[in-house]
Amino acid sequence: MHTVVVGTSGTTAQDVIAVARGNARVELSAEALAALASAREIVDALAARPEPVYGVSTGFGALATRHIGHELRAQLQRNIVRSHAAGMGPRVEREVVRALMFLRLKTVASGHTGVRPEVAQTMADVLNAGITPVVHEYGSLGCSGDLAPLSHCALTLMGEGDAEGPDGAVRPAGELLAAHGIAPVELREKEGLALLNGTDGMLGMLIMALADLDRLYTSADITAALTLEALLGTPKVLAPELHAIRPHPGQAASAANMRAVLDGSELTGHFQEEEAPRVQDAYSVRCAPQVAGAGRDTLAHARTVAERELAAAVDNPVVLPDGAGGGRVESNGNFHGAPVAYVLDFLAIAAADLGSIAERRTDRLLDKNRSHGLPPFLADDAGVDSGLMIAQYTQAALVGELKRLAVPASADSIPSSAMQEDHVSLGWSAARKLRTVVANLGRVVAVELYAATRAIELRHGLAPAPASRAAIEALRAAGVQGPGPDRFLAPDLAAAEVFVREGGLVEAVERVTGPLA
């Protein structure tokens, strides 16, 4: 099994996905263990002093004015975990919780949190055992980080609350730890706070969304090319020199992808051979690289933000070693989720627009007045058969939902903690809705694929591009049927969705074109 080593200098998106989705094992490096021990010495020294230190010998949030004596500090750390594990609603997906746990371990191992090495090791042991805390949908304001979700994870480390075992069954966390030979942790000064004060949930969801959207944007370039081909459109608008004079990198990449898919097609270029010749194709076809390209550039910006967060140590307060064996603990605002929340919302806006233009292309394929010779709704016997009429209704409903979910969560803020925490990011909410956006975008692209491949097969006498033919053959091999009389459509659409989501479309086309952007 693949192993991810956690050091002191951050991690990579690939490591996060390997742990979250691939169940990779996690190990702490010797460097990380040394940094943990060093930072803990600083916390212990400060804890022995009479002066109050936030997170070490005080209450939290609006209760930070109370100094806590030595005899109550272990109880203080237990209590913050128990009281903050206040989530409600449906369970969050296993992959999200594993990303959340791994990213918190990454920050803990940085040497800036003051957590003991044995606590960090228990975090790794829980991940490696396949134990997944039960985390709920609601409870995070994205500031001070993802408090409630991380608290539910910390509760599992203490052997309390519920968790899912590697067999998928939910049991008391203490039973699961015992079954895997893991001793519950007994938290000391600062450790409870350090385990729950970070942007790890929203960052984990951002990283996974970026991976999924990479595949979907390439898939959308392919379906746009297939639609252009089915509509007998012109590929001249994809010429490199046209995109060079508006030098957005994403636009050039999308145009190049479409050119590669269409290479060798006999269907393209017939747009001026009709009774009423088209001078140019409609915007949804002609401007496909501009819209998808803008989304690609949005992905690039979001990836930069994610990489910066992956290199960060997000906690409050943080331990700052002085290089001479000492150091200090300082309060800060690095837990605020605004940088991540903004790009999560930005991605939802871009994805909604990509879904919108894909739906417009699908509708054009189905309208006999705009499809340039295709049968109404791509039906076998129009009137007796309805063809793909309601598939487009479903796609339109999904696009309507995409537009609703494009409303930014990060534009809102709800004060909390008796107005001490008076501005929050709502980044967790942005991340949760982005996951729905990504899933729905995959469905929208699948409907366009379903319509475009059927339309190409209805263009008798003209051969599609080799890459298009490869896409059609792979889709049919995946159980999605071609043209014919009306049938139960939902299974075909579901199979097309899986084909797109799991990368089957990109894989089939790249066997002909080589790697696409």
From TrEMBL:
Q: What keywords is this UniProt entry annotated with?
A: Cytoplasm, Histidine metabolism, Lyase
Keyword Cytoplasm in the entry? The reply is yes
Q: Which residues carry this modification: 2,3-didehydroalanine (Ser)?
A: 144
Q: Which InterPro entries match?
A: Aromatic_Lyase, Fumarase/histidase_N, HutH, L-Aspartase-like, Phe/His_NH3-lyase_AS
Reaction equations catalysed: L-histidine = trans-urocanate + NH4(+)
Q: Where is this cross-link: 5-imidazolinone (Ala-Gly)?
A: 143-145
What superkingdom heads the lineage?
Bacteria
One of the GO biological process terms:
protein homotetramerization
Q: Which GO terms describe its molecular function?
A: histidine ammonia-lyase activity; phenylalanine ammonia-lyase activity
Q: In which pathway does it act?
A: Amino-acid degradation; L-histidine degradation into L-glutamate; N-formimidoyl-L-glutamate from L-histidine: step 1/3
Main location per UniProt? cytoplasm
Q: What class of enzyme is it?
A: lyase
Q: Describe how it is modified after translation.
A: Contains an active site 4-methylidene-imidazol-5-one (MIO), which is formed autocatalytically by cyclization and dehydration of residues Cys-Ser-Gly.
| E.C. no | 4.3.1.3
Q: Where in the cell is it found?
A: Cytoplasm
The UniProt entry's sequence similarity note says: Belongs to the PAL/histidase family.
Q: What is this protein called?
A: Histidine ammonia-lyase
